[in-house]
Amino acid sequence: MADNQSGHKIQENDARSGSFDSPFEEKVEKPVRLNLQHIVKRHLPTEASDWSHDEILKALNKIRRVRLDRENISDIDNLELLSTEVTHLYLHCNKITKIENLECLPHLQILILSDNQISDIDGIAYLTKLVFFDISKNRIEETHAEKMPKSLVIVSFSGNPCTECPSHRFSLIQWLPTLKHLDGIEISREEMNQAGRLESCMDEESDEEDNENSENDEQNYEDPTISHLSKNVNEARSLDIQQNIGYKQLPKIQKNIHDLATDMLMRSQSRLEDRTSEYRKHIQEMTNIRILSKIKPVPHLSKPSDSLD
């Protein structure tokens, strides 16, 4: 009986001291560096384990959307094994502490790094084709807009301490000329005006119209075809400006903006590029007609009369 009581006391003391091992306690795995095994496991079939190294690399070079979320990754590495044509990279829900080693993906357009442990946004400024950047639910205390590429259209810092800073939203709207959505909220015309973007856009459009009117005044001859095509030129140039300052329209996006938002954005971009290509064809046609209109016809030379000696 005394032995049983002493045994219970030992167990109680162990539990209090924390040395007692619970059978339900989960073992925490140590975070790992992103490696080839991660990529192969998520993107190639199971039989790839029997492939040669060259066959694996060939298959990896065909991948354009890379999904490596929830892989307990602490460091971004080994992405140079992929094609430089990769456009989407999903690394959310890991344990990443730093954005690094992305220079091997120059065509990256979508980057998802939400739910990590990142404290700074260094490492993305050179991604000049990036349009969608989700860095929500991390540990970023300062925004540092100047570290971000100006190509961005949709950005989310939601769940970071930096969003509490009064200048957070204004600094990003001012620095990123194509930004349309920030932290799940569409940017209003008033915000654009306060940041100086709206006035700048209107000035550019006004300059383009003045230049076009000046060119039309200098023309000595203008037929109906040229007049019709001139309207297309104005629309084309206006469309180019819209493309430089951002998309004309974007879908309303909820706070959960991963796959659905990216697909809609890419489709919108594709349609915009098609329209731009059509307008540029009209520009070329109009230019050709103007050139032809300036060429004076060669005067008709009559043949010498046979009656003259």
Automatic annotation (TrEMBL):
<feature type="compositionally biased region" description="Acidic residues">
    <location>
        <begin position="201"/>
        <end position="221"/>
    </location>
</feature>
<keyword id="KW-0966">Cell projection</keyword>
<feature type="region of interest" description="Disordered">
    <location>
        <begin position="1"/>
        <end position="23"/>
    </location>
</feature>
<feature type="region of interest" description="Disordered">
    <location>
        <begin position="194"/>
        <end position="223"/>
    </location>
</feature>
<dbReference type="InterPro" id="IPR025875">
    <property type="entry name" value="Leu-rich_rpt_4"/>
</dbReference>
<dbReference type="Pfam" id="PF12799">
    <property type="entry name" value="LRR_4"/>
</dbReference>
<protein>
    <recommendedName>
        <fullName>Leucine-rich repeat-containing protein 46</fullName>
    </recommendedName>
</protein>
<dbReference type="InterPro" id="IPR001611">
    <property type="entry name" value="Leu-rich_rpt"/>
</dbReference>
<keyword id="KW-0433">Leucine-rich repeat</keyword>
<keyword id="KW-0677">Repeat</keyword>
<dbReference type="InterPro" id="IPR032675">
    <property type="entry name" value="LRR_dom_sf"/>
</dbReference>
<dbReference type="InterPro" id="IPR050576">
    <property type="entry name" value="Cilia_flagella_integrity"/>
</dbReference>
<keyword id="KW-0969">Cilium</keyword>
